[in-house]
Design brief:
The protein is of the alpha+beta class and about 100 residues long. It is built from 2 helices and 5 strands. The chain is globular and about 45 Å long.
Amino acid sequence: MTEDATQTRTTTPPTATAAATRPDTDTAPAATVTVNGAPRRIDAGLTLDALVATVTAAPRGVAAAVNEDVVPRGSWPTTTLGDGDRVEILTAVQGG
């Protein structure tokens, strides 16, 4: 008797949304940072631009500092945040 070599097994991967919202501490290391004075859990290795996007949708007039050092906007995508970092995100407001 021979086995059918053409038999394959398929699985359906979880959707990106389900994976992003599911707390899975075994596979996704996390860090705690302070954002504008409040502690926040983030994925380890999150970049500053990704964090800023969760705080404000403003396309301009936003400044950010990590551990009291202002980070130029062009460096946000390469600035990786780590456990214990202190982040300040400021948005300019017009008016009087």
